[in-house]
Write a structure and sequence with these properties.
134 residues, mainly alpha, 4 helices
Amino acid sequence: DESAVVSTANPPPGLRRLSLAEFDLQDVVRIGRQAGPAAAHKALISRGALACDSAQAACAATLQTFWESLYYYREKREQWEKDLALWKMLYAAWEAEQSAKRAQAESHADSGEEETSKANCDDSNKPSAGEQVG
């Protein structure tokens, strides 16, 4: 759900310490959630909320790599969950089909046994005493 990813209702508490107007704060949060920590860091510098600092930039770059990995993982996980749901649906259909085939085979086997036992017990199929058995 995209709305959950870009929701800005609750910005991280650390950002509240910065002297940003509520609109700017919400915008930085939106940028960070959409494009990652490096983009949020640049937005904070461009708004004057942070001074340019090489250690912070390096940290933002490291966090960006981590964020991208998690984002990629989340996409793959969501695709896997969709594939799994499809597989479960197809497997359930296959199981139902196999169960129906087994029931049908058992039904035919049962009716075939009944016919065989009827044929074995039916006196009309037995040869009479005067007939030749060939």
